[in-house]
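Fold it.
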Amino acid sequence: MEYGVKLTAVGLAKIAAAVANKGIVKLTHMAVGDGNGNPTLPDPAQTALVREVYRGMINSLLVDANDPAVMHAELLIPSNSGDFAIHEVGVYDQDGQLFAVGNFPATWKPLAAHGSTRDMIVDLAIKVSNTANVQLVVDTQFVGATRSWVISTITRAYIIPGGTTNQLLAKVDNLDGNTKWVDPTDANVLVDVIKERQLAAAGQDTFTLSVCTTDGVAVYVEGSRQHEFQVLTGVSLKLALPLPAGTEVLFVQNEPNEPLKIPQRIKFIGYYIGQI
């Protein structure tokens, strides 16, 4: 194989010790080098790159989906770093020791001053006896999210974990993000009834609403439900007949299943019958 990665003697010793003592090797940084202008071959005896040109914190360390013995260490080289060739790459542990080293296809990392620039991802596949013995120590201030990581990680399950079939997500309080999964029988939704009263002018049949809208509105004239009216706009409607002056018209939105009990206005005319 023309290109590859090898654990260094230090890396092999640390993995063996971690397996024997049920410990963990903590990786922190990756570096790239230009090989002093020449292609390189990874050597387990190496303790450093031939000539390092850039070092940064490991952006991610993930187990290969197809091989549980392989870990992918990812280095993000930002667009404002560059003007160097890459021939070699290394992974360092928290003690600053070279854990693994590999050679790299000759690649130039440009800067904008030369007419081209880009963020660059270097992905190094490291094979160890047990990936459970290797851990990434990361400073979140220096970690960048790559497009592939976002696509594979930021899923519905990642954003809203938990819950069981047919449960609903309910607010715990009024603070943002405070939610919990509840059974539908435990979820109570209260909807306010919105009411607006107006008194008709003489011959008035068209009304403009200021509190309600015409979306699903119910209309009562002197307490009697009106089923024939024309919606003109989102806030205006026309009744089937003009009304006498002073007629009370009630507009109701979010009316419950049971019709509202609206007191009817009763006009009473009394007569006195008797001797004068």
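The longest strand covers residues 98-109.
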